[in-house]
Amino acid sequence: MRIEIVEGDITARPVDAIVNAANSSLLGGGGVDGAIHRVAGPRLLEACRELRATVLPDGLPVGAAVGTPGFNLQARWVIHTVGPNRHAGQTDPALLASCFSESLRVADSLGARSLAFPAVSAGVYGWDAREVASVAFDAVRGYGAAAPDSGVETVEFVLFSAETAQIFRAVLG
What we know:
Layout lengths: L1 E6 L9 E6 L8 H10 L1 H12 L11 E5 L7 E6 L10 H18 L3 E4 L11 H18 L7 E6 L2 H11 L1
Parallel strand pairs: 1-6, 2-4, 2-5, 5-6
Antiparallel strand pairs: 3-4
């Protein structure tokens, strides 16, 4: 599994699937979540409402992931995951790692070969970008080792700011 760091807009990435740093309601929000919903169009919100009405009546739990079509995005799929909110006392790195490994599991189930992640839980959820990068890279490498038959070949970390991209590059080495 190849890991790449990209500075830019995750909604414009030519990958099979992008990961949405969603809130548990799945009904849109700010930041990456809002940008993905805007570009994907109203059918994404409809798909998320359908998930809430059927398999996720209580919302998506922290650390879990679920897929929907990408609709108007370049990516064929959106994989929604809910990162832990440090401000709400969710400080366990295992919850954060689960966001990455569960997203990879969903990507595999969808047949995705390329996947783009944002800096899940960095920013408004209060996690330090350096810690997010370290946990994310460990989770991706761990998933690759545990699932040698994974079809995911490329994992991009798409960071909106130059500063965050620089931090991720430094942690990746």
